[in-house]
Write a structure and sequence with these properties.
By secondary structure, the chain is of the alpha/beta class. It has four helices and six strands, in the order H-E-E-H-E-H-E-E-E-H. The termini are far apart.
Length: 168
């Protein structure tokens, strides 16, 4: 009987602990106005002040990161399909690469969203690819690998929330 009581006492704290979803990280308290952007390298119009009230994705990537470059076409599709819904995608090349190294990759991937040379999204853990999703209220709601399924779900959820706010 003492053994059962001991097992219950030891496992209760584990049952009460919050479970983390696969691929979901703790989301730091970062607002979109805390993100800094370098110079836009691909001549796409960009004004950080225009992000207010928009769902925003910031994609941290690098020219020397194979997985990052492989995700560029998918990010371009997300940007294109989400644009009419108020989604804004911005890329930050995080490896201090020159414009001449960045532009051919953007052209090949058909990237039409602004990409900056450098910046700080306040979500970097030292590894790329990495992305953050900010809601229309300006708060970071998701951070992680942009290849994770939870990334697209977070974008859809925030676009849905933003459209609900517009109807109210």
């Amino acid at each position: 009987m003492k053994t059962i009581a001991l097992l219950i006492a030891l496992t209760l704290p584990l049952a009460a602990a919050p479970l983390s979803k696969k691929g979901q990280e703790a989301v730091p308290n970062v607002t979109i106005d805390q993100v800094t952007f370098g110079a836009v390298v691909n001549d796409k119009p960009f004004d950080a002040a225009s992000l207010k009230g928009k769902v925003v994705v910031v994609d941290l990537w690098g020219v020397n990161c194979g997985p990052c470059v492989a995700l560029l076409p998918e990010m371009a599709k997300i940007a294109h399909s989400g644009e009419s819904k108020g989604l804004v995608v911005i890329g930050i090349e995080a490896q201090n690469s020159p414009k001449e190294a960045i532009l051919p990759l953007l052209k090949k991937a058909r990237v039409e969203y602004p990409v900056t040379a450098g910046g700080n999204a306040k979500i970097d853990n030292g590894g790329i690819p990495r992305a953050g999703v900010w809601g229309a209220d300006g708060k970071l709601v998701w951070v992680g690998h942009p290849g994770d399924e939870s990334f697209k779900r977070a974008i859809s959820k925030e676009i849905g929330r933003a459209s609900c706010r517009e109807r109210v």
